Amino acid sequence: MGCGDLSHATTGRKGTDLNEPLDLRPDARGKVRDIYDLGDALLLVATDRLSAFDVVLPDPIPFKGEVLTKLSLYWFDLLSGVVPNHLISADVADLPDAFAKHADWLAGRFMLVRKATVFPVECIVRGYLAGSGWAEYERNGTVCGMPLPAGLLESSRLPQPMFTPSTKAELGTHDENISVHRMFEIVGSEHGSALLESAVSLYSAARDHAASRGIIIADTKFEFGLIDGVVTLVDEVLTPDSSRFWPAASYEAGRGQASFDKQYVRDWLVDSGWDKNPPAPALPADVIAKTSETYIKAYELITGRAFQPERG
Question: What's the alpha-carbon Rg for the chain, to the nearest Å?
């Protein structure tokens, strides 16, 4: 994870799901989610699209949308006492009439949510030194411009969780890390304090829960909005798309870690020689299959539940 990831930019139909109903016309299309405006609520649909380095890849990952939705629902329930969230329902019985005919396709991959005024920042929390954070630390002894103690190793646990906000990128551009002070300027000091405290509290609670399941949450990204004046957790939460998950049993500081997220795809893309600018190369069948298996494994380990796909 860089100092920022993901956006609500629009994209074409490359990387859509196999058998996606073509008559579903979203009001907005993000890198992964399609958004339908229902007037007083939104219908969020997690597709099987995968983005890496802020670019949507051409190949869908089987069951990915279901994993993202079901894992987000799990965390929304578990963390509801920490920060309120925007979820209304994920039951097909609550689908509006216009979407009911697509219930078989939508099952397991949609959420009805309350509308929020979303803050224009990504709220990233890091508990371990990895990815671009490690690269910056090697160069400067800092992460997103903030100094850290000398002598840390790759994958070292940080002395305390670090809050490293970023801006949200448009499609084809990259998120930009910003200082906490700059975030306060963008959203205001009162909301800025609430975002920082909410993000760190959510990460800390999720980290402790995941540790009980043998998973290290190295870092993650949250998004927040205002609903009736209350800072509220929105979008997805603590998924393999927005987090770096490591198996605790094989963890060892001083090297990169095996992971239950899209790092496998990132590594393949880097090794392929791709320059990280669109268009992205097609993924081999074995990379697609391995990535699907990795997402499902993350869900099963964190929730303690077998993954039961809603469709084929």
Answer: 19
